[in-house]
Amino acid sequence: MSSSKTDVSRVFSSEDGEDVASVPYCYLDENEVFQEPLDLYRPGHLHPVIIKDIVRPDPVSSASRHKDAPRGYRILHKLGAGGEATVWLAQELDNLNRAVSLKIYSAQYPSAAEREARVLKTCMASPDTPGSHNIISLLDDFTISGPNGTHKVHVTEVVTPLLSCNIPDSWKREVVRDLARGLAHVHRRGFVHGDIHIGNVGCAMPSPFYERDIGVTMRMLFLYDVTMIIPCDPAEDSSSLPAYLLSPCCLSVAYERHGGSKARQAAKLYDFGNARRVGEEYSTDDVRWRCPPPEAAFAYYGCGGLDVLPTMASDVWALGVLIFGLFTGESIMNGTTLGCLADQAKLDGTIPPAWREYWDTDASLRDQSDQVTPENADTEWSRRRDRFIQKNPNIEVAEVDLLISLLRWMLKADPDARPTADEVLAHPWFAYGSQSGC
After folding, report:
1. Are the C-beta atoms of 212 and 258 separated by less than 8 Å?
2. CA distance 117 to 1
3. For 233, phi and psi rounded to 5 degrees?
4. Are 77 and 8 in contact (CB under 8 A)?
5. Are 22 and 232 in contact (CB under 8 A)?
6. Cα–Cα distances in angstroms (integers) from residue 413 to residues 103, 311, 333, 352, in the given order
7. By the 8 A CB rule, do 1 and 228 touch?
8. Which SUPFAM superfamilies does the entry link to (predicted)?
9. Is 168 exposed, middle or buried (CB count within 10 Å of its CB: 0-12, 13-18, 19+)?
């Protein structure tokens, strides 16, 4: 394989009509390229996609789509990728200036796609409910077939990852409020998100992104970072592979240039592939903990390797971790090691009742019991408070103190002691500095 760069504006130029394969390349150092592993492209896994591909629904899935749904979508650039799916910037064939996001699921994960579609459709069924606009909008969904199998496709609005957005201190509280509203809406509709972390939230694109000619946006995205795929054996069947791997575009450039930093955009939750409906039976086989809560570590060690399903309480804990990272740029301790279990108890200041029996029988934990005290927890949070103040000099100390009190509640080691999403929204921190709290 070899790495190369291609000028976006040339690929989409109406004057020369050049295809991506005919544009000159310049080679990059391999370490500069950020792409998914090639071995994910095989039967039963990811669908091969390249720029300018037309993605159309299979005839069977077309029957269930709404009558005004586009005939298909043209791939413009990559937004992201993982083992579960690839995500693409695309344009509607029936409205070439309409930009959308296409999430093409791996053939291995149809259940994740079905869960996500179910949650989004349910949440969109009540568009006037507070928090409904803080969840990514599902515009279309269908299936396609390819050399690697049958793939679910979700078409959504385009959202810029929060990590890429330049969020000033004065906007952070409102971003958190948006995310808490979105989570509360999901919970009220009877679902658990199950995978909240800083990489699964973002900001809506500014309105000029949709109002201007799409060529303007494509010129903002500059270059394609490409790794060509050349089989060692020319006779080898390479239909499962794309012609090249593509690095994600820097969508934040378009976000900024369309005015994202001039006016605050709504923050949104996305990636609901790990979502579950409360009260229904599910297997834990496909649960993915990007941000495992303390109860996941306890289940592993204290319950003989038992896996646990996400809950509303684990969603709240994960949102607390996200908030901590947003304000400090650091990760609060999380994981499923025995050491993390002890650290969570120390940060809380108490050993949850459900942990006590196991804690007392494990020598390494039992030896740390005298360190798990409210006084030691206060000292640890005082240190973290200093970091908040240092990292956010424009936020008043009194506001930081309120935020710390909220986080200590959300990050309780005992899930039964955590607030609900609605209780999070009612916390005095959100009303600081205003009489209405709005």
Report:
1. yes
2. 36
3. -105, 110
4. yes
5. no
6. 35, 14, 12, 7
7. yes
8. Protein kinase-like (PK-like)
9. exposed
Instruction: Tokens for 50, please give them.
Output: 């390249």
- The answer to whether 32 and 3 have CB atoms below 8 angstroms apart is yes
Q: Are 136 and 100 in contact (CB under 8 A)?
A: no
Rg, Å, the chain Cα set: 23
| Contact indicator for 323, 176 with CB cutoff of 8 Å | yes
CATH of domain 289-431: 1.10.510
CATH of 2-269, one of 3.30.70.141, 3.30.565.10, 3.40.50.1820, 3.30.200.20: 3.30.200.20
Angle at 59 between CA 58 and CA 65, to 5 degrees: 90
Q: Going by C-beta distance under 8 Å and a sequence separation of 6 or more, which residues neighbour residue 287?
A: 194, 274, 307, 308, 309, 310
Coil/strand/helix, residue 247: coil
* DSSP structural state of residue 145: E
Of 266, 84, 241, the residue nearest 159 (C-alpha)? 266
Q: What is the DSSP string of 204-236?
A: EPPHHHHHS-HHHHHHHT-EEEEEE---SSTTS
Burial of 419 (0-12, 13-18, 19+ CB in 10 A): middle
What's the pLDDT tens digit per position in 44-60?
999 999 999 999 999 88
Tell me which of 209 and 284 has the higher pLDDT: 209
Closest to 315 in 3D by CA, of 339, 343, 336, 296: 296
Q: DSSP character for 240? A: T
How, if at all, do strands 149-156 and 138-146 pair?
A: antiparallel
Nearest to residue 103, comparing CAs of 130, 137, 69?
137
Q: Which residues contact 280 (CB under 8 A, 6 or more apart)?
A: none
Helix, strand, coil percentages, rounded to 5, for the chain: 40, 15, 40
For the chain, the structural domain boundaries read: 2-269, 289-431
Q: In the numeric block, which tokens belong to residue 181?
A: 């509203």
**Which token pair is 383?**
């240190």
> Which residue, chain included where needed, has tokens 């499923």?
336
Is the pTM higher than 0.70? The answer reads yes
